[in-house]
Amino acid sequence: MVMSLRDQRALPPSKSQPELRSATGAVWFFSLLFIVLSCKPSDTSLPIDSQNFHADPVQPSASVTSGTPPPHRERIWSDFDGQQALAEARTLTDFGPRPSGSEANKKLRQHLVARLTRLGWQTSEQRLTEKAPDGREIEFCNIIARFSRYPASAQRVLLGAHFDTPPTQEFQDPGASDGGANTAVLMEVARTLTLDPQLAGSVELFFLDGHSPFQELTLDDGLFGSRFSAQMIRIDHRAGEFRAAILLNNIGGASLDYPPNSDPGLANALKKAAAAIGVKLKPANRSLLADHLPFAQAGIPSIALLDADFPFLNTADDTVDHLDADSLAKTGKLILYFIVAEATTQ
Q1: Cα 121 to Cα 161: distance, rounded to the nearest angstrom
Q2: Predicted confidence (pLDDT) per residue in 265-298, tens digit
Q3: Is the four-CA dihedral 288, 291, 297, 299 of positive or negative sign?
Q4: How many C-beta atoms lie closer than 10 Å to residue 163's C-beta?
Q5: Other CB atoms closer than 10 Å to residue 224's CB: what's the count?
Q6: How far is residue 322 CA from its own chain's centroid?
Q7: Which of 49, 281, 301, 305 gives the lowest tally of CB atoms within 10 Å of its CB?
Q8: Phi/psi at 225 (5° precision)
Q9: Which domain, by its residues, includes 84?
Q10: Average pLDDT, the chain
Q11: Whether 86 contacts 328, CB under 8 Å
C-alpha cells in the first residue's frame, strides 16, 4: 500500500507496548515514546545482534555504484526463476488475507522462516505491539535473515519486502501483488544467492510486517515494521553497515517504477543496472509514502520498487492471475545484477 507524500516531515516512530523495557530514542523529528518488545526466536532463529553475525574480515567502505560484475557465479541474475517466484507468490496468497496479528499472518511467517532455514539463512524476529483505533493490541513481527554459510560483509545491501495485507472489513484483499509477489521475489532472490555464498554474505533480508495501516496510510498510521526496524538500526548505530536499502512494494504488473523521493544516487545506479540487462525502470509521477522512507531517515540510501499504477492494488481483485512471471523475473534479475555490481567496489 502506498500513498502520495504531500508532507515531507519525518515519519514518527512506532509506539510499541513493553514486555522488556528499552531506552527511548528521539530518533525522528516527531519524538514519541516507544519501548522495544523483544521475543525469543524460534528454534530455527538466531539473534540479530551484530556481534553474532558480523564478518571477521573488515571490508573497505564504498559508495553506491553500478560496475562490471566481479568473478562471482557468472551471470547469477540469470538463475532467478520467474516461474518459481510466481509459484511462491501463489503459495503466499493462498494463506488468504493476512493482516498483522492474524492467524494467517502467523502461519505465513512460519512458512517464511522454515523455507529460509532450509536454504541456509539464519533468521531473527523483531516484535512490537501497537493499539488499533478500536483499542485492540496488535502484534507485529518482522523477520530478518542473514546467510549462515559465509561471513557477513562489513557493508551490506538491505533488501526488504512486506508480507501483510490491510485489515479491511468491507472486502478481503488477497494481496497477490502487495504482500505476495514482493515477498516471493525476495524469497527467490534468497534462493538464487545460495548459489554464491560470498555474494549472499553481502546482503541482509528484511521481511516486514505492519506495512498496512489500521485506517489510512499517513505519517502516523502504517509502515509499522519498517519504522521499527529503522529505529533499531539507528539506536544500534548500524546505519553505516548498509550500502543501500531496496524495498519492494506491489510488483508483478506491467511496469516497474521507483518513487521520485528515493535516493537519487541509488536510483541512478539501479537505472544503469536496468539498462545493462534490458529492464525498463522509470520514475513514478509522484512521490510516495512507502517502506523506503524510514530507512532513508535512518541515514541509508534507500529506494522503493513498485508498479505505481497497478489497477488492482488494495482491492479484492489483487489476485495471482493478474501477476506476470516475466515481470517478477525482471525485478529479481535487476536486484541481483545490482548486488553483483556493488560487490566489485568492496
Answers
A1: 16
A2: 999 999 999 999 999 999 999 999 999 999 999 9
A3: negative
A4: 30
A5: 29
A6: 22
A7: 49
A8: -65, -45
A9: 3-343
A10: 84
A11: yes
Q: What is the pLDDT of residue 55?
A: 33
Nearest-angstrom CA–CA distance, 64 and 76:
20
Q: Rounded CA gap, 336 and 333, in Å?
A: 5
Distance between alpha carbon 236 and the CA centroid of its chain, in Å? 19
36, 308, 309 from 3: Cα distances, Å: 27, 10, 11
3-state secondary structure of 208: strand
User: Does 246 score more than 90 pLDDT?
Assistant: yes
- Residue showing cell 528454534: 43
335 CB-near residues (< 8 Å, 6+ apart): 159, 185, 189, 246
Q: How far is Cα of residue 42 from the mean position of the Cα atoms in its chain?
A: 21
82 and 149 in contact (C-beta within 8 Å)? no
| Residue type present at position 72 | H
Annotate 130-151 with DSSP letters as a single string.
EE-TTS-EEEEEEEEEEESSSP
- Using only the alpha carbons of the chain, give its radius of gyration: 18
Cβ(157)–Cβ(337) below 8 Å:
no
Please give the pLDDT value at position 10: 52
- Could you tell me the CATH number of the domain that includes residue 64? 3.40.630.10
One-letter amino acid of 173: D
CB contact set of 291 (below 8 Å; sequence gap of 6+): 160, 162, 208, 211, 223, 225, 226, 247, 249, 304
Distance separating alpha carbons of residues 258 and 211, to the nearest angstrom: 17
Which residue from 279, 296, 276, 280 is spatially nearest to 288, judged by alpha carbons? 296
Number of domains present in the structure of the chain: 1
For the entire predicted model, the pTM comes to: 0.82
In the numeric block, the cell 540469470 is attached to: 78
Model confidence at 169, pLDDT cuts 50, 70, 90, reads confident
